């Protein structure tokens, strides 16, 4: 807007509400005391108006846009197929670009805008990122089946000294492992780094080393005689669908969250950050 147009708009507001909103100073225009008090109310009105507009667009069902979504793990584990099928039926004009991520990198990419949304597992403590919690994930220390006897009586020191298959340092998988042994004052020996859980699992079963494996996979591998679970450690974290807190009211983001909630059968929660 031009400066005269802004001045005219301010004048119209002051005439309508019979109050001076700005005061002239030697350095320019500043809010008056009345203007300072009314500013907070004005921001609430604008926010409510935008929320009303976003909800109306969402209910209309004619949403369109292209978003980048970070994925991780296996498609079946994050219910990716079910999510995409429902999204395409309900909002056919929304186009998604899927990008596979390392868990720790996913939150960085959502924060800096490289990704619009992403699956993520771990702690969600950054206030600039919010999300929908989908499920708990439990990990177990898992080793090749041939190591069953030596793991049966192994203490923390012995397990830390085994050859470990670790994920990259930015990965939540690696951070969980570090926290597990940090509490014991130990650092596990790394022999191989792999950036995908399916690769890590395959290396465990192949007899290369020990690592963390999701509990359901570890128990299945143990039942089939392909691996053995060390019984002294159990780690639990959360799987999330995350997005920028600033974009929580974006109609397209809200549409994705709505579909994700239905895909996982989650109830709507109320509060300051309803998606969490």
Question: What this model shows, in words?
Answer:
- By secondary structure, the chain is an alpha/beta fold.
- It folds into two domains: 3-42, Winged helix-like DNA-binding domain superfamily/Winged helix DNA-binding domain (Arc Repressor Mutant, subunit A), CATH 1.10.10; 61-276, 3-Layer(aba) Sandwich (D-Maltodextrin-Binding Protein, domain 2).
- Helices cover 42% and strands 27% of the residues.
- The protein contains ten helices and ten strands.
- The protein has helices spanning 3-17, 33-60, 80-90, 103-112, 148-152, 156-160, 172-182, 197-205, 215-223, 251-263; strands spanning 22-25, 28-31, 65-71, 94-100, 117-121, 129-144, 163-166, 189-193, 211-214, 227-244.
- α7 (172-182) links the parallel β7 (163-166) and β8 (189-193).
- The two termini are 38 Å apart.
Categorize the overall geometry: elongated
Series of H and E elements: HEEHEHEHEEHHEHEHEHEH
Cα Rg: 26 Å
Helix/strand class: alpha/beta
Q: Please describe the biggest sheet, giving its number of strands, its sense, and whether it closes into a barrel.
A: 6 strands, mixed
Assign the CATH topology of the largest domain: D-Maltodextrin-Binding Protein, domain 2
The fraction of residues in strands falls at: 25-35%
CATH architecture of the largest domain: 3-Layer(aba) Sandwich
**What is the topology, as strand order, of the major beta sheet?**
4-3-5-10-6-9
* Euclidean distance between termini CA atoms: 38 Å
Mean pLDDT: 89
Give the number of DSSP strands: 10
Uncertain residue segments: 270-276
Taken together, the total number of domains comes to 2
Query: Helix coverage percent of residues?
Result: 40-55%
CATH class of the largest domain: Alpha Beta
Number of helices: 10
């Amino acid at each position: 807007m031009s400066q005269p147009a802004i001045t005219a708009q301010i004048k119209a507001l002051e005439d309508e509400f019979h109050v001076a909103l700005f005061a002239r100073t030697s350095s320019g225009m500043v809010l008056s005391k009345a203007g300072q008090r009314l500013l907070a109310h004005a921001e609430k009105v604008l926010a409510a108006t935008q929320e009303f507009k976003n909800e109306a667009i969402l209910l209309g069902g004619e949403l369109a846009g292209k978003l980048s979504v970070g994925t991780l793990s296996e498609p079946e584990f994050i219910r990716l197929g079910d999510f995409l099928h429902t999204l395409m039926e309900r909002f056919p004009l929304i186009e998604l670009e899927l990008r596979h991520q390392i868990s720790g990198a996913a939150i960085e990419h959502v924060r800096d805008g490289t990704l619009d949304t992403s699956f993520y597992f771990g702690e969600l403590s950054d206030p600039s990122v919010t999300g929908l919690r989908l499920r708990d994930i439990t990990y177990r220390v898992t080793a090749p089946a041939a190591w069953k006897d030596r793991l049966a009586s192994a203490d923390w020191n012995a397990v830390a000294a085994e050859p470990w298959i670790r994920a990259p340092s930015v990965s939540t998988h690696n951070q969980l492992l570090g926290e597990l042994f940090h509490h014991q004052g130990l650092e596990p020996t790394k022999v191989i780094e792999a950036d995908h859980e399916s690769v890590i699992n395959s290396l465990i079963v192949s007899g290369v080393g020990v690592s963390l494996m999701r509990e359901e996979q570890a128990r299945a591998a143990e039942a089939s005689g392909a691996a053995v679970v060390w019984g002294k450690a159990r780690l639990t974290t959360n799987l999330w669908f995350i997005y920028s807190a600033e974009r929580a009211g974006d109609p397209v983001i809200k549409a994705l969250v709505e579909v994700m909630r239905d895909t996982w059968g989650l109830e709507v929660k109320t509060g300051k950050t309803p998606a969490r």
